[in-house]
């Protein structure tokens, strides 16, 4: 019997087109039916922006119909790639397949192989919706770049101090751009050279540097783990897996120490950097401590309804920096089963032995039912997507929207990462508390 899924928080693997678009001057070529690109972009990005160097409305697309379903769409794909190379001013072209073309058996790898000698690189990635989510599609796109582009280039010498940073998923993390830039800033402060491939002016030249990094830094509970393992196998590049996106003083200081230790940096230098930031951070906290601990309109308990990355980052921040207590934490992006046990263990690593129960669920209706049954001992703090706004009102609680679908605010360059990011999140949380009170 078919199951009804209410309020899903992810899209199909073809949503990885946003990963391609996030590489400056990279062009997604969609081998799918009409409308896929615009619908997926609207679901993922929305008010956080889905444009840039080009827009999903202008992606090259085969727009397959009944004729291609009956006779196959390989010839049409061949033509679209040829014309895209002629008229689209791009540096990298990535062919992504939708559900229908994979069901009818189109061999996109074979078609793309005809363009091995093209002036600009062309690669292919199978991203049929029935194969996985856009998070898995993101990994497959990066793997495609590694296997089909980087592996064919001559190997260059390792650049001392160069660090590839992986983690926030473009567009799917509404704060992805600001978060990546702040991770770059933190790594740079340690005296290392950050390299990322996503965002403004990060294009093929940054991709080309990936094999030359001294190590890869993955800041994510699970997304990207497959990529850094592949880079280690292909190029011998070691990786540091730091599962928690650092928010606030406690986690950001731990992050800097972990990166410093892995890179073999001088510990005294690292502690000097940490001390400078913590003094500033706690100065701002001390100025406003009465707001956080003397208000009577917010419970000391919270729940998150978001991705594993956001849930872990926010939970550690609220517990370790602010002393709040976690109720159930709901992880909504469809984490593959092979990662779930390890991800759940991360929620047992809070200070003072505090632990949080984790629920992996993609059904908003069931999630909301469970939250209503939770004991918050007062007005709950609910951190999630726009789907949780009505629930928070129903429970006379406080609400902060941090994940897709967001539809709540415009995000240009904001970030929750780092010391300043922690202060920004506190501003957003307690602004919500004041708004609900007034």
Detailed description of the structure:
- By secondary structure, this protein is of the alpha/beta class.
- The protein folds into three domains: 13-152, Rossmann fold, CATH 3.40.50; 162-279, Nitrogenase molybdenum iron protein domain (Rossmann fold, 3-Layer(aba) Sandwich); 289-437, Rossmann fold.
- 44% of the residues lie in helices and 13% in strands.
- It is built from 18 helices and twelve strands.
- It has helices at 17-21, 36-44, 66-71, 74-87, 99-104, 108-113, 134-148, 176-189, 204-209, 225-235, 248-263, 267-287, 289-294, 308-320, 337-346, 364-373, 389-394, 418-437; strands at residues 26-31, 92-97, 122-126, 162-166, 193-195, 215-219, 239-242, 301-306, 325-331, 358-360, 381-384, 398-401.
- A five-stranded parallel sheet has the order 10-9-8-11-12. It has a four-stranded parallel sheet with strand order 5-4-6-7, sandwiched between helices. Strands 1-2-3 form a three-stranded parallel sheet, sandwiched between helices.
- Strand 9, helix 15 and strand 10 (358-360) form a beta-alpha-beta unit.
- It is globular.
- The N and C termini lie far apart (47 Å).
């Amino acid at each position: 019997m078919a199951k009804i899924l209410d309020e899903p928080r992810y899209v199909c693997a073809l949503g990885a087109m946003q990963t391609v678009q996030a590489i400056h001057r990279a062009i997604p070529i969609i081998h799918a039916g009409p409308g896929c690109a615009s619908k997926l972009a609207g679901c993922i990005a929305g008010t956080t922006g889905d444009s840039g160097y080009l827009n999903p409305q202008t992606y090259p697309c085969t727009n397959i119909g009944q004729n291609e379903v009956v006779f196959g769409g390989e010839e049409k794909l061949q033509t679209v790639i040829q014309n895209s190379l002629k008229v689209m001013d791009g540096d990298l072209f990535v062919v992504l397949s939708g559900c229908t073309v994979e069901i009818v058996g189109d061999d996109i790898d074979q078609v793309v192989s005809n363009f091995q000698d093209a002036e600009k690189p062309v690669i292919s990635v199978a991203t049929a919706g029935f194969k996985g989510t856009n998070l898995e599609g993101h990994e497959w796109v990066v793997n495609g770049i590694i296997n089909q582009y980087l592996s064919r280039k001559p190997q260059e010498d390792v650049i001392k101090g160069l660090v590839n940073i992986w983690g926030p998923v473009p567009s799917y993390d509404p704060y992805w751009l600001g978060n990546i830039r702040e991770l770059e800033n933190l790594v740079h402060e340690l005296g290392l050279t950050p390299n990322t491939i996503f965002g403004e002016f990060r294009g093929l030249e940054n991709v080309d540097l990936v094999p030359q990094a001294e190590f890869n830094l993955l800041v994510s509970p699970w997304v990207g783990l497959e990529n850094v393992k592949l880079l280690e196998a292909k190029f011998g590049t070691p990786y540091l897996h730091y599962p928690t996106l650092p928010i606030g003083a406690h986690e950001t200081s731990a992050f800097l120490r972990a990166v410093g230790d892995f890179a073999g940096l001088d510990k005294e230098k690292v502690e000097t950097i940490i001390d400078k930031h913590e003094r500033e951070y706690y100065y701002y906290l001390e100025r406003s401590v009465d707001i956080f601990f003397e208000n009577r309109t917010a419970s000391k308990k919270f729940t998150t309804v978001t991705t594993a990355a956001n849930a872990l980052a926010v939970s550690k921040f609220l517990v370790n920096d602010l002393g709040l207590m976690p109720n159930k934490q709901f992880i909504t992006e469809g984490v593959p089963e092979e990662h779930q046990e390890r991800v759940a263990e991360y929620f047992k690593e809070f200070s003072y032995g505090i632990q949080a129960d984790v629920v992996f669920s993609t059904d908003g209706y069931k999630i909301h039912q469970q939250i209503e049954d939770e004991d918050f001992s007062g007005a709950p703090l609910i951190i999630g997507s726009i789907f949780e706004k009505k629930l928070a009102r129903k429970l006379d609680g406080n609400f902060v929207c941090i994940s897709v679908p967001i539809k709540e605010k415009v995000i240009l360059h904001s970030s929750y990462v780092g010391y300043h990011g922690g202060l920004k999140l506190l501003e957003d949380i307690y602004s919500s508390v004041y708004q609900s009170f007034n």
